[in-house]
Amino acid sequence: MSNVVIVGAQWGDEGKGKIVDMLSGGIAAVVRFQGGNNAGHTVIVEGRKYILKLIPSGILHEGKICLIGNGVVVDPEALVAEMDTVIAEGVAVTPARLKLSRKAHLIMPYHKLLDQAREEHKGEGKIGTTGRGIGPCYEDKAARIGIRASDLEDLPLLRNKVENALEEKNALLSGLYGKQPVSADEILAVIVPVAARLTPHLADVSAELAAVQAAGGSIMFEGAQGVHLDIDHGTYPCVTSSNTVAGNASAGSGIGPASLDRILGIVKAYTTRVGAGPFPTELFDAIGDTLQERGAEFGAVTGRRRRCGWLDIVVLRESIRLCGITEIALTKLDVLSGLKELKICTAYTYKGQTLQFPPQAELGMQDAVPVYETMPGWSENIEQAVTWEELPQAAGNYIRRIEELTGMRVSMISVGPDRAQTVIL
């Protein structure tokens, strides 16, 4: 099996966790390369649900090396809590299996305080951040004042860096947002106990990946969120704080781009979005409610209700162009069962033009009107299907139309949440 990058081709929540878990059996290492614990990957194995936020989904496969790359921002408390949860389920989480890049930046308690205070301060203008400190941590990284995982091995250095950071953070917290300032002692009281748990897991992730390749093993690069939440290419400013496109798998893990062989785009059979931001195909009717209820569309991390709408090919074309997607894994096809007709957005009308790709003006999608084509739905329950022939003809026609409109082959179809509920083509 070649090296494969897993990206969400919409606004996240496409079902990446299940696909990563499915494919993990044939690879040697799984690496997360961006984002933080603001996104959760849900994996259901034999009826048992696991929600993984920082630990790569491959941890559920015995013997796989799981790595958290330099491009991820890591909340030390959250990572330790997640490790304990997985260990309690009988999963081995040893330093030999889970490795954290020394170059990864750490989310400090003051990052979370700032994130929440900013969102509160914006009022109606908020962008829907999870409040977990992701953005402020990436800001410190860019400003070259961030705390890195390697700092956990040098507590005097850690204290010095925290004290320097708090000069600015406390000025913002108290002066602009009216919050109580925090002390370095308060911060270290939280971080030092978890440092002892994490330091055995620190590693040179770039070297680890090179060793896997040298031994003939394959690597899976596990992305978080979706392409249209990318800080550069998404629906700015309603985006995340990292690059979610496939190319960041290289920079965010420390491996050359020539090692990225396959780019697997995960596509939900309809479209969802959490939080604020434009969403041209959003449904505000009974069908939207049906998709939300049948699909159990609540954020794995936040519990927020996901907005639901028809499949948007314009969004997918852009994801394919930006990421060089080579194939599609279509998820949650079973949720569409029972709908008499289905709609697919094939283009937008925007300021008198017909567009095949999203407008690039800030929040331009808000003014985009979807152009739909309609297809017959199906009434059959498809959750037990394991071959193409077991799918209703209308479901097959829907999949083939997606392939025609995107120019991409659909290589697997998820017809239920469990690992086994998948049709492989």
What does this structure look like?
- With 425 residues, the chain is an alpha/beta fold.
- Helices cover 30% and strands 20% of the residues.
- The chain starts with a strand and ends with a strand.
Structure, briefly:
This protein is α/β, with parallel strands linked by helices. 30% of the residues lie in helices and 20% in strands.
Key words describing this protein structure:
30% helix; 425 residues; alpha/beta; 4-stranded mixed beta sheet
**Proportion of residues in extended strands:** 15-25%
User: Rg from C-alpha positions?
Assistant: 22 Å
Main β-sheet, in a few words?
10 strands, mixed
Percent helix range: 25-40%
Distance between the termini: 16 Å
> Strand order of the main beta sheet, please?
9-7-5-2-10-1-11-15-19-20
Oligomer: single chain
* Number of distinct beta strands: 20
What would you call the structural class? alpha/beta
Mean pLDDT: 94
- Overall geometry comes to globular
Give the count of helical stretches.
11
